[in-house]
Amino acid sequence: MAEQGRKERSPGIKLLFVGLVALALVVPLLLVYALVWDRQSQSQTAQDAINAGWGGPQVVAGPVVVVPFRTTEVQTEQTNGQTVSRSVEVEKYLYISPVDNRVTTRVAPEERRKSIYRSVLYEARVQGRAVFALPADLPRFGVTRERLLWDRAELRMGASDARGLTGGGRLAANGRPLAVQPGKGLGATGGNGFFAFLPWTGEGNLTIDYGFGLRGSRSISLVPRGGRTVWDISSAWTNPSFGGAFLPESRTVSDSGFAAHYAVDKLALGQAPVGTEDPGPPTYEDSSAALEVRAAKASSADVASGGAVDVVDGSSRAVIVGLVEPVNLYAKVNRSVKYGFLFIGFTFLTFLLFDVVGGARVAAAEYLLTGAGLVLFFVMLLGFSEVIGFSAAYALAAGAIIGLLSAYSAAVLKSWRRGRYIGALLVGLYALLFVLLNLEAWSLLIGSVLLFLVLAGVMYATRNVDWTSVRKRDGMA
Q1: Based on the domain organization, do 272 and 383 belong to the same domain?
Q2: Which of 31, 55, 368, 476 is the most buried (most CB within 10 A)?
Q3: Which residues have C-beta within 8 Å of that of residue 140, sequence separation ≥ 6?
């Protein structure tokens, strides 16, 4: 039976009502956002399990000559309420950095999987030649030759994760092989590495040839020391990330891999050629996992431009080369969720225009169900991405949601023609979002222009609407 004289809400009240429903859908969007971070955390845990027993991100430092020496220090003590000073002889270490160090590293990468997760591992071969010489003005650094205990001199190499040292280490002084011992690494690598006792008295130049195998994951870093450090690194990996305190002098990245050439001068390091303190590990200003976070967000633009990460004063400075995954699906899904409210807003706005201008009636439950479908897209995108990859998952999830909401809209709006309008709108939105995700540098410009065009279209479509009026339907079936 028809209901006579039934009142409708004014267009302004409808707009406010739709805005409140859309705002309520922010809660499930935030839950999806939290779900992405949870899955990313699970992925990190799985990667750590894959890397266990192999080696983590590696930091290489050295070689450095370490010579103990004796010196006199004045110590102050409190005795019977009086301050007493006395001279004592203590033993310290003199760290002698090379005047020239040339390193070549070849990295052989591989991917390993655990369930649906994967991690980038590598085996690297590090080879180099370093030249040492005592400074002619050594006494000006607070140490004299006669106090140096050359019979206990050591040559130290550092590798931050000793589990990754493979194939044995090779050290040779002026062509004479040295007996390599484990441990006694450098401060820059947390004390991890290997060493050898060194038959050198400080006379003339000392040439050190070295080489060792190194297993690791995600990244490999080099800590330059002393005079001039030259590092040539190459790999078959096609998605490197160049960062750290210094960027390469030259680099090439192609489908067959990458090669980079670094040259770091002593003046850029700000360190004396000899010292009584061994600098500690590199400490990155944007966190200890700076490289991994940046690598997770890296794109082709990052590969081209690098992006240096500086270090806190007082620590070693490192050059970092990361093996970046070509597509980090969690970063892209995370970014796509941030556009979720725009999807809801555009779709609800279209429904509202059909209601206010076209005469269709859309109930609160229909708005909520449509919004739930739009939110479900991001959950499906995350779930399918972990199995079939981001692009395929995006096409599958978008196709499913577009088909579902187009059919539902046709029923709600009482017209297949209107349902096709909604479908066309969603196709455009999902296509635009995919473009924005792949053109991050242009996303703000494209998004602002799109919002301007949408606002202009809404203004035009509603130019004759009286937002305060209330109309009556005289015959509702």
Answers
A1: no
A2: 55
A3: none
* 69 and 158 fall within a common domain: yes
Residue 365 lies in a domain: yes
For the record, the structure tokens of 361 come out as 């009636």
Is the same domain home to 245 and 394?
no
Q: Which of the four pLDDT bands, split at 50, 70 and 90, describes residue 470?
A: low
Choose the weakest-confidence range: 128-137, 234-243, 253-262, 426-435: 426-435
Residues in a beta bridge with 103: 128, 231
Closest CA to 190 of 57, 305, 20: 57
| Distance (Å, whole) CA 350 – CA 294 | 39
Single residue among 280, 298, 326 that ends a domain in this structure: 326
Q: What is the spatial distance between Cα 200 and Cα 203, in angstroms, rounded to a whole number?
A: 7
pLDDT one-digit tens code per residue, 7-39: 556 666 777 777 787 788 888 888 888 888 888
Please tell me the distance from the alpha carbon of residue 198 to that of residue 279, in angstroms, as a whole number. Answer: 21
Q: Are residues 78 and 216 in the same domain?
A: yes
Q: Is residue 275 part of a domain?
A: yes
Q: Do both 98 and 208 map to the same domain?
A: yes
Q: Rounded to an integer, what distance in angstroms lies between the CA atom of residue 172 and that of residue 190?
A: 24
Structure tokens at 455: 């606002």
* 132 and 83 in a common domain: yes
